[in-house]
From TrEMBL:
High-level lineage: Bacteria, Pseudomonadati, Pseudomonadota, Gammaproteobacteria, Oceanospirillales
Superkingdom field: Bacteria
Region (Disordered): 1-32
Composition skew (Basic and acidic residues), residue ranges: 8-19
Record protein name field: YfjI family protein
Length: 507
């Protein structure tokens, strides 16, 4: 690459004819990602997320994801949302948080889900007693059934009459309808399910469940996402987001079935290397699975999480905002669900009506316009296509957490700010992925040199950020910066290799 280009004589003013342009060629720039709008989560969720981020010392967006995901899990069995004439569906939400090792994902998740974990612990304490009672009830039921069958058998060689057979059939049908069912497992959430495991959980346990994991690689790398099972798992999880019935087809009698009225929310935390593979997976992209997720990836706080000036006696369990969040979440997750005889949830329908609908329609149309060929969200259309529906779901979750019967204009507008954040962040990440990665890395190296005296010596490569410390990584980027006019070689080694560099134009 040349350092400058000579303009054609006829393209320059007379006074500049023949002059060589020596200005450095521009490098690709990273767009500044927006800040997560915690205030849009409201007084209950937003204040709790802010305080959790402070106490755990995690990025604010991670905390926002965690509390909103927990709230969706708590309310999804209580209400469905109707978007005027444009359909109705669950308020379930799917989240994906990308954060590196040591970012305290587990600590944050544990606190955000504390009321749900507490309820699960209480259920576990009573589970052995329930299992024992079920075992006794089933043994009594089996003895009763066997005794009726034995009593109905004809004496001697007399065949059973038609009326006797009919009576036995009706009696057994009545008894079979009374067969004791095992108590549900105490867990509301699971982390590494297969499609069959999800089906069984929603069939026999809690009809409103959560796919939650602070190590999401367990889900994406587990048996349920193996080559054999990933298609079934992705299809089932996607159907649950849509609110559609899920099916299971098996060869053995009684193993097939259809489940309606089940709900699932999800929050999966992934390390960046795993997230890159997941987000680039053609199957997950092609089936629209990833487009259902609201994704956060924020800059790391590692190196800034200092304890100086903090009161060691005041932690999250002493914080009024977190206590208020825990109290409300506990109230919601323990609220009884309306369940029919088949085990299906019948949530209360919530309408986005009147002025709130007008606000939602305005948001919908703005997203639609920005999804056009010239729009901001043209490269993230799969996510944009579900953004308005996600906004309706978020608005309903916010409303129910705050004690409202249905979303107001304020809830719609706040949900719109959150969805705008998710779409804008995704658009920036997608644009960066299409840029020249090496050019972006060269810019980052240049900024480091500028911030450290404007000079770099080869023996100081070990002082560079970790991704540039080896000569094999640093030298190609430095050569690129010399070729583009940003650096000049300031000295060479006895072997003739560049040994020091300084900012171009500086002596």
């Amino acid at each position: 690459m040349t350092l400058a280009a000579v303009r054609e004589q006829g393209e320059q003013p007379p006074e500049r004819a023949g002059r060589i342009e020596t200005a450095p060629l521009p490098l690709a720039e990273r767009e500044t990602a927006p800040d997560y709008p915690l205030e849009a989560l409201g007084s209950v969720l937003g204040e709790a997320a802010e305080r959790l981020a402070y106490h755990v010392q995690t990025p604010r967006g991670m905390a926002g994801q965690s509390v909103l995901a927990a709230a969706a899990l708590a309310v999804q069995g209580l209400a469905d949302v109707a978007r005027g004439p444009h359909g109705s569906g669950p308020v379930s939400l799917f989240f994906l948080t990308v954060a590196g090792s040591g970012e305290r994902k587990s600590s944050l998740d544990r606190l955000a889900l504390a009321p749900i974990r507490e309820m699960e612990t209480e259920k576990r304490q009573h589970h052995p007693e329930e299992l024992a009672a079920h075992k006794a009830a089933r043994e009594a039921w089996e003895m009763r059934r066997d005794s009726l069958v034995s009593a109905a058998k004809p004496k001697g060689k007399q065949p059973m009459s038609e009326s006797e057979a009919t009576y036995l059939q009706e009696t057994l049908a009545a008894i079979d309808a009374e067969e004791p069912q095992p108590p549900p497992t105490p867990s509301v959430t699971f982390s590494e399910p297969t499609a069959e495991g999800i089906y069984r959980h929603l069939q026999h346990n809690h009809p409103s469940a959560g796919l939650f994991s602070d190590e999401g690689v367990g889900f994406f790398g587990g048996h349920g996402m193996s080559e054999e099972g990933r298609g079934r798992t992705v299809a089932m999880v996607s159907k649950l987001w849509d609110g559609d019935p899920i099916t299971r087809t098996r060869g053995a009698a009684g193993d097939s079935g259809v489940l309606a009225g089940r709900r699932l929310s999800a929050h999966l935390m992934l390390q960046p290397v795993v997230a890159a593979k997941v987000l680039g997976d053609p199957l997950l992209q092609g089936q629209g699975f990833l487009a259902r997720f609201l994704i956060v990836q924020e800059p790391s706080l590692v190196g800034q999480r200092l304890l100086k000036g903090r009161d060691p006696s005041q932690g999250p369990h002493h914080d009024p905002a977190i206590a208020r969040y825990w109290s409300r979440l506990s109230e919601l997750v323990r609220a009884p669900l309306k369940v029919d005889e088949s085990g299906a949830i019948t949530p209360r329908p919530v309408q986005i009506g009147a002025e709130a609908y007008t606000a939602w329609a305005r948001l919908h149309d703005a997203i639609e316009v920005e999804s056009s060929e010239e729009g901001r969200f043209r490269d993230v259309r799969p996510f944009a296509s579900k953004a308005a529906e996600n906004a309706a779901r978020i608005a309903t979750v916010l409303a129910l957490v705050e004690g409202e019967a249905a979303p107001t204009v304020d809830h719609i507008e706040r949900a719109g700010r959150l969805v705008a954040y998710y779409l804008e962040s995704m658009a920036i990440r997608t644009a960066e992925a299409r840029q020249d990665t090496e050019e972006l890395r060269a810019r980052e190296l240049l900024e480091w040199i500028k911030g450290h005296g404007g000079v770099l010596h080869a023996q100081d490569f070990k002082r560079l950020p970790s991704e540039y410390r080896s000569a094999k990584k640093a030298r190609p980027l430095l050569a690129f910066l010399v070729d583009t006019g940003h650096l000049q070689i300031d000295g060479s080694s006895p072997r003739g290799l560049p040994a020091s560099w300084r900012l171009a134009g500086e002596v």
